[in-house]
Every structure is written in structure tokens, then in C-alpha cells.
Fold:
Amino acid sequence: MHARTRCWTLFSGFLGLAATTLGRPSLAQNPPRPAQATQAARGRPERAPDYPVRAPAPPQQVAHGQQLFRSNCAFCHGSDARGGETGPNLVRDVIVLRDQNGEVITPIVQNGIPARGMPKFTLSAAEISDIAAWLHAQPLSDRGAPSTLDILVGNARDGAAYFSGAGRCTQCHSTRGDLAGIGAKYDAKTIQNLVVSGGGMGVGRRSATPPKVPPTTVAVTLPSGEVVQGELDHLSAFIVALRQPDGTYRSFARHDSIPKVVVTNPLQWHIDMLPKWRDSDIHNVTAYLVTLK
Amino acid sequence: MTRRVTLLLTIALALPAGVLPAQGLNPAVLLRPATDAWPSYAGDYTQRRFSTLTQIDTTNVRHLSLAWVQRLTAGPGGDGGFGPRGATITGGVAEEPVTIPGSTSGSPRLSGSILQVNGILYITSPDNAWAVDALDGHVLWHYWWKSRGATHIGNRGMAMYGDWLFFETPDDYLVSLDAKTGQERWRKEISDFEQQYFSTTAPMVIGDHVLVGTGDDLDSPGFLQSFDPKTGELQWKLYTVPMKKGDPGLETWGSLDAAQHGGAQVWMAGSYDPETHLYIIGTGNPTPAYTAMLRAPKDVHTNLYTCAIVALNVDTGKIVWYYQTSPNDTHDWDSTQPAVLIDGTFQGKPRKMVIQAARNGYFYVLDRVTGEHLLTSKYADAANWAAEINAKGQTVRNPEKDNTVPGSLVSPDNGGATNWYPPSFDQRNGLLYVVLREIYSMYYSTTNDPRLMVGLGGSEQDNVGSLGTSIVAIDYQTGKLAWKHRLEGGGGATGLLTTAGGLLFANDGAGSLVAYGLRGTQPPTPLWHSRIGSIENAPETYTIDGKQYVLVTAEGGSVYAFYLQ
Structure:
């Protein structure tokens, strides 16, 4: 049952990485998603599931288990087994996690847990095995799955005012130019992420092609006074490398601020905005842009 | 013959009963600053990663050159690399190991600390361990564990007691090896694979204890265990969340069921203070990670002992004091980062302290004898999720910056302002050097029903921009940044090393190991670099036969040793 979470993890992690400009993702203990994405991006074979996968039970058995659960267990544990008024969430319960085919659950159901107020049930081992089959068919965690909820809460009119006023979006963007029809091109959440990122990041979980963003450029002023310009290829404290408009690759050693290096990121405005945004302005601009069909 | 017996007797008398190391680790070495050895996770128990060695310094570091490189291979064919080949020793409980690149084949990820004891390096990656000659890098033995699965995100290294090594496997075993041969001595299951625990932690040897943590991304309770190094018998087990009625801290949870599923995993090695006999750990976040609605429905529900610095008695496993940095966290920002032990003055008074730069972007100073809070400051300018710092110095969440259905722009991202990357404390000027990431994400709640949020579920996070990655110097007396050095290459988060030679060794995020010259409160100057590929662990340093080495790992299962030719 744990396999289904894995699909989302691999899928979204891979696409997420493809869209990111952050370079190598942080290999944090939590979550392992970036590590797996890295492996996928490196072209390694798709890995095996991390945790035990139970063979899916026959649909009839699962359906029967659900029926039995609803009439016997749902009153306390909730109709989805994820916890009710008095009974705990069973999907993540250690007893259910350790159980394979009802062998761990059966004695508990048949004997009850009097100390915790759980009565005994006159269900047969076969019936409890069916309940177990249904419990094991429940997805454990939707980790990595994208939101499908309606994210639009903003006010389009306020968003329009911000767009051409305080937000100063019109210094680079035009609703008749680059943003024409954006509301038809992307879903609301993608648009919202693009509002913040400017196009470099935040796209990729859905199928839309991210908008083209002009590359980061660099101007290198050599001691001779010659200025070499082009697309930034590589930058460290020791080397700057670029590709000139005709495709020529040039790299220069850096030492004590020589040569002079000036990097121009076309998304700098969006980066500078990161600490300044109010969430309400983000939501309002999104509400405005989705109307541009 | 007589001489040999005399020699053996001398060694036996000089060491505690039960330890007869020939080329093994003298336990006294664990208690002193690391110079000719790197015998534990951070070199010594303080987690300072400050080396007193001065052979390599700011005047000669430009001559630092390659001593050797080794390329390791994971899995049953992992005996090779450069040098003579030997047989791989196979362990593990799985009849048919799960195929995992980097574990069963290919390049291992070497993100852990490497032990150096008596001229031999002990290296780990998930499911793999090697002994390597520290003079030329050739493999002496390789041990491979047949895995039944689990999250293979990393292995933080081994611990050593006499001639015995200890390391954890992703599928939740503590394995003890004979350091001379790589043969398995014993193995112990340390946590429940069915509950999706996975184990990465570097064990710590303190006296006759092997201290062992584990990890989990589902809703399972955290704990720390102590094992007998000789037999592998469990000595004690400390849960970091309340597990039954009457347990302290239960009143800080919405229900007993919530507490029992509350997380607080102990997945990083702690620090040890021999004077107080306290082991000091940072604990993980509460679970489910992205909603506090069921586990913390009221303000009093702070979810102890999640996101806390906890001091415990090494012999009993009982908590002596604790300080919770982030009550009822909702972003998966644990406080497992190294708790660094420092001595000095604070507001004019001599103090023994413990300091931590936490994943949430805040820096904390405590008195490590009493747990008294001394200072909280923000070291990540970008961090925008806290409404205030309360009277106890704890960071208090702004609910608008939780996961929300319409989305909230929040920094740090999931990886945090910092993470497992070891910081380094420069004891000459009281600065803690930390790798800082200032990334922003849109945090979306994917459901309105908190019951559906299990483990790390219920959240979509989309990275939307970054102010970059930096190395920062935090003055522990004020909490303010002395300097912030932006890494122009963009990435670059692994770990740091400082030496008394005035050097800071770090990953520059552009594929190089860099030696910076430290200039006190002025930003450091890059002096030397070697482009060896993406750096994977924190650099280490030690001497062998009087010669100082710098050791680091890089992508492709590579181990690099540098010295002055």
C-alpha cells in the first residue's frame, strides 16, 4: 500500500527538479524526495519501493471489508478509518502497519481493548481478514501529491490595481504582450507561482510549458579594458565562464576582483520582491491574471 | 614471545576491561581535541569542528595538493577502487536485497563523517562500509549489507570502541564490525521497518554506551537507545514523545494518540559534556508535519519534546533538562542540527554553553549545565514565518505562514535555513560558521481535513525563488552576523571545518572545495580551491606521522586527501 505514495514522489520530484534553477537540490534528511529526484535526473534506473508493498487484495474482498468496516468500526474510527470521535486513526496505526492479512488485527477485534473502551466484536477471522484487506488498500500518505483545491481567494480588481500601481509589474510586463491569454495557458496555481518566481521556478508539476525567461548574462571587463559579454555559464570565486552571442565559450580566472564581473539576472526584480510580498497581493494579482483568457 | 606478552599486558592494563585494541581506538582519544585522529562523528564530543592543527595555514595553503583519490563502488562488487582487490563481506537479513542504486551498485553517496584511527579510514554510505589506508587510499576491506528497503538518503558515519565499529543500516539495524577484518560481530534491530523507520545516524560511543538514533517520515514516535558495545544488548531507550498516561509532557498534546504518533526523531549525533555527563541532542519536528490541528488544538499544546534541545544522563537515559526551540512546528523544520558545546563569557559572566543554528532560521544559546535560555536571534534574514519571540525565547508561529489552501510565501523552504550540514565554531573569536540557505516556497495545504494529513502528506511546496546560499558567521554573544559570504555558484550546502591555521574549508556550490582565509569579523578571503566535483560531506583534518591532511568526499563515490607536498 505504500507504493502509491511513491509514484507521486518520483513524478513530482523529477518534474520539480527539471523546472528548478537552484541547481543541485538540498539533500536534507527530510524529505528524501530531492535525493530521489537527483537519481532520476542522473538517468539512473527507477528504484525499487522503499517500504514493503502488499500484493493488492481482490476487489471483492476489499469491497466486502469496506462494508464490514462501515457497519462495525466506522462509528468510532470514522468511515475512512482515519479517526473519529472516540477511535484513533487506524491507517497509520502500528497494529495495522504490522498486520499482513488480519492475523494481528483479529485477536484485537475479537477480544476488544477494554482499558481503552473498545468492545469485542463477534466477527470471524475471515471477515476481519477482509476488513484488513480494505485497511491495507487505503493510501497511507499523499506526500508529494499536488493540491487540487481551488486556490483562488483574491480580488481581481485589487490585483489589477496592484499590477499597474504599487507592484510596478508593468515596468516589464504587459497584459496585451507577454501576459496576453495567460489565464488560458496555465492553471491558477501555476500562475500564482509564476507571479512570484517570474518564470524561473514554480512550474513543472503540471504539463504546461514554462514561459521563456531571458538568460542570466555577464559582462567581464579585462585589465586591458576589453569587455566580454554573454550568457553566464559558470561562476565561482575563482572562475567566470560565459558563452558569447556567436556561441564562443570563454572562461577567465578570477583573482582579487580582477577581472571585473557584473552579472545581470533578468529575474532580479522578482528575487528582490521575495522578502517584500504580502500574501494578499500575491492572491489578488493571481485573481487578476486568471481573468486574462 | 615474552616481549609480546609483556606488551599485551601493558596495553591491557592501560585500558578499561574488555578492550584490547591493537590498532584499535584508545577511548581516551575520544575525550580530547582531534589532532592525529578523527575518532567520532565531529572529531570530538563538542561538535565544534575546530581543529587545533596549524601546519596548513593561510601562508602555505596555496601549495595544498592531492595526496590521493579513491573511487568507491557500492554493492557486492564494491571491493575495488584503486589498489588490490579483496572479497566483499556480505551481511543483512534480506534474502533478496532490494535493488537500490548507490547501495547495491554504482557510486555510493558519501555524506557522512569518516573516522581516522591509527592511520586507517572507516567510511560509510547506505548499506556499505569500507576500511581504507589513510596514506594511499587503498581498500583494506568492504562490507555490504543486503537491504530489505527503506529510505536510502544517507549514512552519517561510524562509531568506534576499541577494535569494534558500529554503524546503522537504512533498514534499521545497528551493525558491529571487527575493525581489523570487517567481519560482522553482531547486529541488532533498532526500529520497526513496518512503521517506515529508516536509520542514517552516526552512532556515538560514550564510555560503555553506543548511543543510537533513528528516523521516520510517517507518524511514529522518536527515541534514542543505548546499546552495550560488547554484546549489543539494549541498556536503555528514551522516547522523545509521551507514550502512555502519566508520562511528562502529555499535557502538551491534543491527545495520547497524537503524542504516540508525534515524531521528535533523533536522527543526528549529539554532543557530550564529560563534566556534567550529559548527552545533548536536538530533536525532530512533530508529526503529522504540516498540520497542528489535531496534535496542538490549543496554545498549551507545544508538543514536547519535538523541536527541542534535550540533555540526558548517559548512564540512565533520563532527561535532565530540555529547551524547546519551536513549539508545535508546522513546516518539518526539525531542531536536530548539531548542538555545539562552547565555553566562554556571556554578558560578562563565564558560562558553559550549548549553541544551535536551527533549521527554522533562528540561533539559540543556552547554559548547558542548567538548560537556562540565554539568547535567541534570527540568522536567516529571509525567514518570515515567526510572529514573535516569546518570553522564553521561543519562536512563535504566524498562522498565516502555515500551509494554506490559497498558498503562503514562506522562507525557509522545506530543506530549511540549514540542515544536517555540520557548522564550525571558531573558538578564537567566538563565531559560529553556518551554511545558510534562503529559499522561498509557496506552501499549499492540499486538504481541508487534518485527519488525511499523515507524515509529510497534505502539503504541496513549490520553490519560487532564492536569495542564495551563504556561509555566515554568527557572534554567539550578540546573535548578530559578523559577516555573510554569498556562494556565487548557487548551491553548496554540506558542512564546514575551521582550523587554528586561520582557515575555513567549505564547499563553494560550484564543484570546488575551497580554503578561505579567516579575517576575524571581516568576510573571509578565498585562498585555494580544487574543482573535484560536488562536495558531499564536511571536510575533516588530522595528522598522520606528523603530516596534516585534509579529507573530503565528492560525487561519484570519491574520497580526496590533500596535503602539503
Summary: Chain A touches chain B through 76 residues (CB under 8 Å).
